[in-house]
Amino acid sequence: MSDFDYGNARLHGMKSRLLTRPEMEELLAAGTVRGLINALSKTGYREAVERALVQFSDMAALNRAWRQEWINTVTKVQSFFRGGPAQELLGWVVGRYDVDNVKAILRGLTQHVDANEILTGTLPVGRLEPADLARLSLMVDARSAIDLLATWRDPLARPLMQLRAERPGASLFQMELALERWYYRTAMASGNGGDAAAFIRFLRAGADADNILAVLRLAGLPEASPFLRQYFNSDEATPLLVGPGTVSWDVLNDSAGQGSIQRAVSKLAGTVYGDVLSGAMERYRSSGNLSVFEAALVRYQLKLAHGLLYTDPLGIGVVIGYMALKRNEINNLHRTAMGLAVGETVAQIRTEIAFLDEL
Q: Which residue pairs, CB below 8 angstroms and at least 24 apart, start in 321-325?
């Protein structure tokens, strides 16, 4: 029996309980936040919402419910895989949250945010326990938090300590970039053999998305060259790229130097993201908002993850696929609640919902 057999069977069962389009449409039609809360009582979110309502009301309760539902989901998934390649690979999948948590803490400490508020921006589902995150959030500054990570011999301290040695007084942006680059590099290097193929594919798509967004931001920045020279002592975008995706760094650098978003997108037309970016370009012309490219790339990754459920049915692909679909479902519910709270129409909200049957 494979390390993945038992857990993957459980995940397929959990996937069958994800909200269908008719169920999502019913929630969209709730009309108000209070109506949405009532409608959720008929779904698998009933317990999480009811628990949150004991301490909070309306939107605050829903936000707490989404957070707790995701923590419970990841914890349950982890319980299915104990030992062997399955647990090791899952550790890297979930390790993404350790990176995000440390980034959130460094950001909060740099901006002098209250510790409790910092913790609301973390999700304690990775290697770092809730008590670890709480202790880090109480440090006086980012440097002290990094020192504490180093005393724990936590792997995330390595890229930060190296950055400090190379660039004393590095900015928050540079620290976050160092963490991102470390994660992609080490996670990809850790995956050996056929068991990791789906994971590596998913990682490369994530690196591509981060790299493309960095390039598009540079292309739309008149001061791109001075910025790169000031912070990275370079005239190219390479120092901003997080890792080896499928799009070559030569193509990315060429795109970054085009001086406009439209020309930058045209330079990426020959990549696997050509159609995705071209479609987003149409929306960008009307909105002028770079977030349309981010949304398009997120949906591309979501479809890729969904496909891994079927192309890697006996491996980590099922874990990646289910977790992506569950996260998307929670995002859909959050977007629905936010739209109802500000009086948006169902049609407006629906444009930003990724229904399960569309993936």
A: 321/15, 322/11, 322/12, 322/14, 322/15, 322/77, 323/73, 323/74, 323/77, 323/93, 325/15, 325/18, 325/356, 325/359
**What is the mean pLDDT of the segment spanning 229-249?**
86
Q: In percent, how much of the chain has pLDDT > 90?
A: 86
What tokens does 89 get?
């690979």
CA-angle at 357, arms to 80 and 202, nearest 5°: 50
Cβ-contact 91, 82 below 8 angstroms: no
The whole-angstrom separation of Cα 37 and Cα 51 is: 12
pLDDT, tens digit, for every residue of 157-166?
999 999 999 9
CA dist., res. 56 & res. 243, Å (int): 41
List the beta strands (DSSP E) in 300-340: none
- Decide: residue 315, CB within 10 A, 0-12 exposed, 13-18 middle, 19+ buried: buried
As given in the structure block, the two tokens for residue 87 are 């647990």
DSSP SS3 for 17: coil
Let me know: does 230 contact 271? Beta carbons within 8 Å. no
- Cα–Cα distances in angstroms (integers) from residue 39 to residues 29, 45, 103, 337, in the given order: 9, 10, 35, 12
pLDDT at 233: 79
DSSP state of 313: T
pLDDT of residue 228: 78
Encode burial over 108-138: b for 16+ CB neighbours within 10 A, e otherwise.
Answer: bbeeebebeebbeebbbbbebeeebbbbbbe
- C-alpha to C-alpha distance for 204 and 210, rounded to whole angstroms: 10
Tokens for 78? 């982890």
CA–CA separation, 45 vs 59, rounded Å?
A: 15
Domains of the chain: 1-34+194-359 (no CATH), 86-190 (1.20.1690.10)
Residue in 294, 253, 254 with CA at minimum distance from that of residue 276: 294
CB 123 within 8 A of CB 101: yes
